Automatic annotation (TrEMBL):
InterPro entries tied to this protein: YlzJ
Protein name as annotated: Uncharacterized protein
Source organism (scientific name): Aeribacillus alveayuensis
Top-level taxon of the source organism: Bacteria
Length: 74
């Protein structure tokens, strides 16, 4: 079976359900990103979910950057 998708393999073939539950899609500076919780209320950006190429050049939302969760909007 061949699966053509832009989603990463880890999201399609999830090994542990616990790791999936730690991920969520949030807005950072108005841009949708996929984040994963690594400490309580602390998140690491996993993926930028934008179709605008300029959003991938913003240093504050690059994958690997950390953000702190205060409420529903970052």
């Amino acid at each position: 079976m061949i699966l053509y998708t832009t989603m990463p393999q880890e999201l399609i073939f999830q090994g542990a359900n616990e790791e999936f539950l730690k991920q969520k899609v949030v807005q950072v500076h108005g841009i949708s990103v996929l984040v994963q919780e690594y400490e309580p209320m602390r998140y690491r950006i996993v993926r930028v979910l934008s179709s605008n190429p300029n959003h991938f050049l913003i240093d504050s939302i690059m994958p690997g950057q950390t953000v702190q969760y205060f409420d529903k909007s970052f």
